[in-house]
Every structure is written in C-alpha cells, then in structure tokens.
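[worker-b] picked up task from shared queue
[worker-b] task type: protein-ligand structure
[worker-b] ligand name resolved to magnesium ion; SMILES cross-checked against name lookup, match
[worker-b] sequence length check passed
[worker-b] input payload:
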Amino acid sequence: MAIHASELNSAAVEVEGISKRFGEAVQPHRLMPWRKAKKPKLALDQVSMHVESGRITGILGANGSGKSTLIRILATLLTPDAGRASVFGSDVVRHPAQVRRHINRVSVEASFFKEMSPWENMLYAARLYGSGGDGTRDRVEAMLERLGLPLDTLDKPMKQLSRGQQQKVAIARSFLTSPSLLLMDEPTTGLDPRSKREVQELVRSIRRDRAATVLLCTHDLQEAEVLCDRVVVIDQGRVLAEGTPSDLIRAHAAPSGSLEDAFMRLTGKRLEEDEEEKEE
Ligand SMILES: Nc1ncnc2c1ncn2[C@@H]1O[C@H](COP(=O)(O)OP(=O)(O)OP(=O)(O)O)[C@@H](O)[C@H]1O
Ligand SMILES: [Mg+2]
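[worker-b] inference finished, payload out:
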C-alpha cells in the first residue's frame, strides 16, 4: 500500500505504558510440599514506544525480554493488563477488527493448512482479505522467485516443505495482502545464509519504496544495523534505549563500535548466556 508523504512521520503504532503478566502466583502449601512458590511473570513492564509510518523499526532484546509478547498484543492475539496501544489510530483492545485490517504478522510459528499446498494456503489468505483475483498467481510466483523458493514447491502439500521453505511461504503470504503494518517476529531465524539475504533484500525493498511500516524483532544485530531506521532495545520487559542505530552506537559503543557492542553494553550480558539460562 502506498503511503502518502503526509502520512510519513505520523504514528503507525503508539504504545503507552503497556504491561502484561503471565501465570498466577502459586503459594507454597503445607500438604503439597512439591508445589514450589511461583510469582507471575511480568513479560512487559510499562512499555511505551512510538513507531513512525513508512519506516523499519527494530525491536532488539535477549530471549524472554518480551518482544513477541509486544508483537502479539499489537496483532490483537493477546490483551494487555494495563496501558494502551493503537495501530494507525485504532485501539488494539477496543477495535481489534480495524487493527487486523492494517496488519500482518510473520513469525516462526506461522500456521498453515499442512495438507494444502502453499498456493492453496495463499489463495485462502488472499480471499479472506478480499483479494485473490486475476494476476494473483503471477504475483505469488514472482514473490517466491525473489525469495529463492523453487516454483515446483508451490503445488506440493505444505507438510513436505522444509521449515525454511515454510517460512518463506509465510513471508510471501504476508506480502500478498499489502498490509500497511508488517509485524515480523524473527523472519530470518533458521534460514540458510542465502535465504537470509533474500529475505533481507525483500525487507530492504520495502524501505526503499516506503511501501509499509515494518516492526522487526531480530537477534541478528548486524541485520538490525543495516535494515532498521530506528531500533528499540528491550530487556526484561522494559525499554532500555531507542534511537537510530548510529545514535545508539554513538551513545553506547563510541568511538568505533557496532550495534552489537552497544547492545551488549546496554543489556550488560551476552545473548549466549541468556540462551543457556533458558535451557537449564
Ligand atoms: N503464553 C505464555 N505463558 C506464560 N509465560 C509466557 C507466555 N508467553 C511468554 N511468556 C513469558 O514472558 C516472557 C517474555 O516472552 P516473549 O516470548 O515475549 O520473549 P521474546 O523476547 O520474544 O523472546 P525470544 O527472543 O526467545 O523469542 C518470557 O519470560 C516468557 O517465558
Ligand atoms: Mg520471541
């Protein structure tokens, strides 16, 4: 969808003081000593942010920092416990149907009809959004070619495709309906190096054309540095810093560091350590 110059710099997403807690408190019990005390998990703690239209904004954070929770709230799949969020002026809690008209989410756990082919899955999605007429097949083929997916995979059952191939279909599907806000939750995680580049090139073309607003969660800080106009660093559900990649480098990794250096300094821990914690 083309964005008019007047819409540039206006907010695509406004998030004000969003909090989200998961799970209920569990108290220790005299008769059930195996039941350990548990506190509810505060996944988002009064997060506020402003995302401009026609830009690519990166959300960076270690595992479990709350990125996907924020994306799911904006996609109307979860409701916040406190705070407000709106997408192109529509409140995600009060007007979810209006919000859904503007967005499309790409995530590693994309859902498909596995017995159906990529083509059938895409046609289904396109028709739900009122498109899917003449020319759709050509558009889909062009998109898959761009993503480096062999055309003969288009008519095989989805379940026969590798995970990376399925991810490319999810990305192609999200572009088919021309959403004004693309919520990309780790779109390149698990892709081989060539596929990763192809997806990044596609995202770069969105930036070139200012065709959509993109919110991109990624662990790849080099990817964030080259693709994002702005980045927001979150840690344990809180916004730690935001700005252009060069702002953050200047402020936290001067004089000649990378966005990764700035991220490490800001969060004070390494991504790998967090990964280990998660596995324990
Ligand atoms: N449905 C849920 N039920 C309980 N806890 C949850 C649920 N979803 C997320 N959490 C918890 O909320 C916190 C934030 O999770 P979230 O998935 O948003 O993190 P993330 O930043 O996307 O992490 P990753 O980089 O691993 O994808 C984590 O501690 C997670 O365990
Ligand atoms: Mg996540």
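[worker-b] attaching auto-annotations
[worker-b] The chain has one domain: 5-111+180-279.
[worker-b] releasing lock
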